[in-house]
Amino acid sequence: MEPPAATRRSARPQSVLFLCSQNVVRSVMAAALARHLFGKSLYVGSAGVNAGEHDPFVDTVMEEIGLDVRKHRAKTLDDLEEYEGLGFDLAVSLAPDAHHKALELTRTNALDVEYWPTSDPTLEAGNREQRLEAYRRVRDELEQRIRARFKGG
Cβ(91)–Cβ(111) under 8 Å? Predict the structure, then answer.
């Protein structure tokens, strides 16, 4: 007999998929942070609803904390399904369109879904430093949420 959904969600999953709109900013940061913080004890993937273009601001703010994401190549959910499958315990959606897609996945995949509304730093206007500060805020918020959600286990 399967445990109640609330029990499953409180337990630390073995694998997590971070989903965003384009898999170039928020989901890239989240996946890199989770891999860094939890190593091989947590299988981590990331994907986007749509294909996106590389964002050098992500490289900059992740390098500030010692993480190199320059080799990341954006993947859509279709790419992920085709090459890796969707054998994840948990999908964490970071944007409204990604959350909608994640809920659709539950129709054909046994996974839990959590929605972490996360601001889009690409929408920040201003000079380079102001824009970088928006990316840093998102990075730091994601790190706090990831530490809190996946600690233990």
Answer: yes
User: CATH number of the domain that 136 lies in?
Assistant: 3.40.50.2300
- Between CA 113 and CA 9 the distance in angstroms is 9
The total number of structural domains in the chain stands at 1
pLDDT tens digits in sequence order for the chain, 153 residues long? 344 444 344 578 999 999 999 999 999 999 999 999 999 999 999 999 998 999 999 999 999 999 999 999 999 988 877 655 678 999 999 999 999 999 998 888 888 999 999 999 999 999 999 999 999 999 999 999 999 999 865
19, 83, 152 from 62: Cα distances, Å: 18, 26, 24
* 3 state SS of 138: helix
The bridge status of strand 43-48 relative to strand 112-115 is unpaired
pTM here? 0.89
